Predict the structure.
Amino acid sequence: MILFDGVFSSQWDSAGQATEEAPVEVEDIETKKETPARVVLFNDDWHTFDEVIGQLVKALGCGSDKAEAIAFEAHSRGKALVYEGSMPECLRVNGVLEEISLITQIEV
């Protein structure tokens, strides 16, 4: 028998006899929905620090100090984590950053 979300199901062999197998784990859809996603900002050669900082403040609602730290990390390391949380909020943050064509990626 195989366990699917708490329900057992029999497997049949070639002779038509029921066989039993170890339970199979099924990933809970609700758990998958709650997995945090991340918005990553990549460095580019087109935007000034002031443009990036201003857009980060707009997207995150944070102070300029935090936005400056994120911009500097993207500049020095090539990328920086901007936000981690729910997918709808990642999409919102990403959309604001893309308003000025910043290079971003959403990771799951």
The chain has two domains: 1-32, 35-107. The helical segments are 29-33, 49-60, 64-77, 87-98.
